[in-house]
Amino acid sequence: MIGTDFDHQLIQLAQKAKERAIAPISGFKVGAVLVTSEGKRYFGCNIENVSLSLSICAERVAFLKALSEGETKFITLALISDSKDIVTPCGACRQLIWEFAPNITIVMGAGAGQGKMQTTKIADLLPQAFTFHCHKKE
Is 38 annotated as catalytic? Predict the structure, then answer.
C-alpha cells in the first residue's frame, strides 16, 4: 500500500463519511474528505434521489459545504467507495474540482478491505480542462 500517513488517515476519515451515504437505488456508497490549506476538513457522502439526475456525489458535497462556508484554498481531497477497485471522481466532479482547486492532490482508496490507494493531481484526471477563467486560480 502506497501513501503517506496523512493519506491513510484521510482515507479512514473518508470511510467514516461513506457510512452516512444515502444510496438506496445503486447501493454504491462513496465518502470524501476535503482538506483546506488551513487544515480544516469538510466531509461528503453521495446522496441519491429517485430522479437520479438530482443525485450528488460525495466529492461535490464536500466542496459545496466548504465553498458555502467561504473556503477557497484546498490542498487534498480523499475518497473511497465499497468497490474493490479504486474509483476516481466522475466528470462533473472533475470539472468542479478543477475550477475551485486546480492544484489539489486527490487520494483515492479502494474499499472492501483491499487497502489499495492511488494519489494523483486533478490535472492528470482532467487534461486540457475547460476553463472560462471566472474563478481566481491558486
Answer: no
The DSSP code sequence of 47-91 is B--SSGGG-B-HHHHHHHHHHHTT---EEEEEEEESSSS-----H
Q: What is the pLDDT of residues 47-60, one digit of tens each?
A: 999 988 899 999 99
Catalytic-role residue among 19, 38, 48, 59: 59
Which domains, and CATH codes, for the chain? 5-125 (3.40.140.10)
pLDDT at 41: 98
Q: Nearest CA to 87 among 105, 71, 111?
A: 111
pTM across the whole model:
0.90
Do 36 and 71 contact (CB within 8 A), yes or no?
yes
